[in-house]
Structures are given as structure tokens and as C-alpha cells.
Amino acid sequence: MRVAVIGGGPSGLTTLKHLLTAHNFFPGIDPIEARLFESEDSIGGTFRYRTYENAEVGLCSLAMLHYTDFRYPIEAPDFLSTKEYCNYLVTYCKKFNLFPQIQLNTRVIRVQRNDENDTKHIIHTLRAGEVSRWACDAVAICSGLHVIPNIPDIPGLSNVPLTLHSSEFKNTQQLGTEKNILILGSGETGMDIAYLAIKAKTRSVTLSHRDGFFCAPKRAPETYFFGIAPSSTSRGNVPYDVGAASLFDTSYVHPILRNSFLPWEYYDRFAKYTTWLVSGTKAGLDQWIGEISPERFHASKIFFNKSTKAVPYISAQYRRSSIINSLRSFVTHVPIIDTKGKKIDLAPWPRKIKENGVVEFIENGRSEADFMRKKICKPDIVILATGYKQCFSFLDDDYPRASEANIRSIWKEGYKTVSFIGFVRPSFGAIPPLAELQAQLWIAMLLNRIPSPVLPIDTAHYRLQTPRDSRISYGVDHESYAYQLALDMGATASFTQVILLGWKTMLSWALGANINAKFRLVGPWKWSGAKEVMEGEVWDTITRRRFFFGHVTLSLLPILLFGSLNTILFVFTIIYEGLERLFYRIRG
């Protein structure tokens, strides 16, 4: 079998690696011939070519981020810079000897059906002005979500002296001195750039949003209780993306509970009331302005923004005091960062930019609109942190697009030899580990080594319920989606299987998050090093949790709540099915 991989980012690299090593896991399978085509002069994709100073990798923890069978030492920092991550990817390629199968500076210009012989696709590539063709049996499209800049249509944008898309922003030197900066977009990139701008030698910084944001900490909060500071540790509290127990949340969940809205309701209330408890506001951690509109403000509908460094500068003008807030703060709070008088103005989305360069903002009926109405915003530089759009111009018209991939967002029914790896976005988590699981499932399916066919159903429990008019419609819940992919390929260990591996592995399996190593204990991609990862890194994420904002809120409470409900539902199902069989036996 010959397989083409398009794109040399994290998704493409893990797909290539699993293709090249598949014969080691599936007896009787011949080695797969795979080639990866990358248009740039190095691997890394967005993390190498569309990043900026001090950027972290999606603010995702290392324990969640790195590939299952190539780990950093356990004492490594929790979060990597994009430069460190790219170095990791290079080392990964060397470790598994991927570079001989990677063609750099090679742009795929067309993918077409092959009617001439048994191979199904022809890949047309352009390198150094020369066009080449390569016939193959399957294609993995890993070109990524973050390539083509999304430029909003704002009348008068050309009236600003300098406009940059965030992909063009590299460092604060581009901001000059004593300049007025307007940043459009309040996602993690917009927040990062706003923080860099307010710390630079700028005159003013304004951040513009469409419909609010929810800033959530990347770590479980370090809280003061009755004025007593938390005990200090060298590594800090556990990152939130690996802080929750999976038992009864994704594993051993009754279908009725899994498909209900109750799990979403629990985590929605957890997110809102946790932030209120430690900072006095439900809008986000220490976020007193820029709240999401009520009809969209639910954990099932939003992407959590884990870039929080700019928030104190945004909230400085809006913090409110009250007797209740003072009492709450006396009991527990997170420290408020002193901004030393610096502030970031929050604004609605621009309606237009006048000929004189002054911005006219939309009237959204919120406090920031009233505030900006009294100010003159005349930016010297506009930075568009407005994301990216998908483009598959290299695919012939008879090929499906990523939005049509109705089988786990990987392939379209009836088109199993064309996959889209890495085209989902988790609300809290990271794309690379999900791409690794997607690649494993797709390859196992190609080789006819999955327990049963995967059908285009059973998706509601892991999909975000975003409004139909949302620009991003491919959101997923990381934990639920990862577990579903593992379930599809028969890689979810049972309680009996893990208890035989020892108490430490069993507790790590139950109390740990859905880190990919959990799905290498059993199944088609079973790996001998998975147990060591479970008893090392995963165990470490459990023991590092603080008592209340960790063991209680993220393990004990959900296990008690969902465990009780699941037990009731499973018992009811057993009784109901038993009575049903008895009824038919009596009748028959």
C-alpha cells in the first residue's frame, strides 16, 4: 500500500510515523510505503511559521501534548514554547527515521482520481519549478486549520497606516514606540499579543471582540484560604487539561447519561462557580468585562481561552467591590496582579474606520461600548487576530472537504481512502494528541483491523453545540472525543484489564485524564511503554493536584455524582432487559 501525507505539522508527522510502523503492530501486514509532502523548508507547520515571541503551544500542557511513545522527562516544564516544541518534532523525526520519507519545499498542487490502474489517487507536486506525479492508494490531508489568514471585511481598514495579520506578527519591535495599537480578535492569539503590546513601549492598546470570551486558567488556581498562601511547589498546581478524572465521565458511562446534557451542565457550573469563588466573577478568571452573550455562554458552546496574562489589564477599569465580594475574598481568592497603572481598553467590533483613521465601533449595549463612545480610537497599527480559514484548492472537485468528513471528522462515508487528520478543535485540550488518535483509527480502518465499522452516528456527546452561524463549527470536547476514537478501534481497557497491571496503573487509569498512553495499554496499537507512562507521568498529574481545586472538584465530586447515576442506570437496564426477556419467554 502507498499513502501520501500532505503537511509536515504535528498531525502529518504522527500520521507518517504510524503508517511507517503499522506492520509492527498488525501481523500479516506488509510495510506501507508512505511519503510526506511539505511546502515549507522545514517541519513544524504553524508552530514554526505562524508564531511570535514568547508563544506557547496552544497553552496545552506537555503531558497532554507530546506523542505517546516519545516523552519528555517527567521533570520537564509543564508548558513548551513553540520553539521548544519544534525542536521536539525534529527529534521525533530523527528518533523514528521519518526524514527519508519527508519531501520539503514540495507543494502539492493537485490531487486527482487515478483511472489508469489499481492505485486510487495521483498526487501532483511542484518542487523547484518541476512538476512530479506520485500514484498512491490513500491520502492523508494534514495541511492544518491555521494556514490561510482570515481577513475580516471592515470598511475603511485601509485608512490605518499599518495592518498586520497575526501570522505576520513576530515580535514587539514591530509595534514601534508610542504607537496606538488596535487588536481585532479576543482568542488566545489576540490575548497574547495584547499582553505583549501593553508590556512594550506603546501609547495605548485596545482589544476588540465580537461576542465576548471566557478566560480560564491553564492551571488549577493557586488560592489563598482565609489569607493563608498556598504551599509553594517548584512546579505549581496541575494543568487543568490533565486535572480531571475520567472514570464515569468518559469510561463506564451509560449511553443515556453520556448522550444527556447533564455532564455539560456539571462542567458549565463548575467553570462559572469556580471562577466566581476565587475571583468574584462568573465571566472568567478575574474577568470583569467582555462576558459572552447569555445565549452562547455555556460550556457546551464555547472554546475556553487559556491566555490570561492580559486579563488584569483589561479588568483594571471594571473591577467592582461589594460586601459579598469582600466576604468571598476573605475566605478564598487568587492574588490580583498589580498592573502599575497600565490598562488595555476593551472595545466592541469595529463598524468602520473613517477616512481620518478614527474607528467607529458597533453598539453592543455593553459597558465597553459606553466606555469607547467617550474615547477617540485612532490606531497607528491594527493587528488582525482573526484566525484562519480552510482551503483545499489542491483537491479536485470530486473529492470531499474536511467539513464533509462525517465519520469522526476524519473521513467521509464512502471515501475511506481520503482522510482529514487534525481538523477538529478541542474546547480545552490540544489538536496533536487527537490527531495521533485519528491517525491510528484511520490506518486501522484502512487495514481492516477495527472491531466493527465506524458509522456516521453517535457524535452528539463529544461535539460542541456551537450556533449554526459560528465560524468554527468543528469543536469537540477533548476527553469525550479521545475516548470515542479509542473505543472505535478497541483500545479502551476494562477495569479487569487494568487492575491486573497493578494498583498504580489502575488508579492512574481511573483518576487520570484521557492522555493517549491510556489507549496504548490494550488494543491494536498496544505499546510496552504505556504502563510506565501511566505510573510515571499520569500518576504525577494526580499527586500534584491540590486538595479542593483538584481532588475534590475534579475527581471526588464528578465520580460520586456520575458514578451514582451510572450505577442506577446500569442496574435499571439490567432489570428492564431481564423482565423483557422473561415477558417474551412467557408469551412464546
TrEMBL record:
Molecular function terms in GO for this entry? flavin adenine dinucleotide binding; N,N-dimethylaniline monooxygenase activity; NADP binding
Which InterPro entries does UniProt cross-reference here?
FAD/NAD-bd_sf, Flavin_mOase, Flavin_mOase-like, FMO-like
**The UniProt record lists the keyword GTP-binding:** no
Entry keyword set: FAD, Flavoprotein, Membrane, Monooxygenase, NADP, Oxidoreductase, Transmembrane, Transmembrane helix
One Pfam family per UniProt: FMO-like
Q: So where does this one cross the membrane?
A: 556-579
Q: Which domain of life is it from?
A: Eukaryota
User: Would you identify the family this protein belongs to, as annotated?
Assistant: Belongs to the FMO family.
What is this protein identified as?
Answer: Dimethylaniline monooxygenase 2
Question: What species is this protein from?
Answer: Golovinomyces cichoracearum
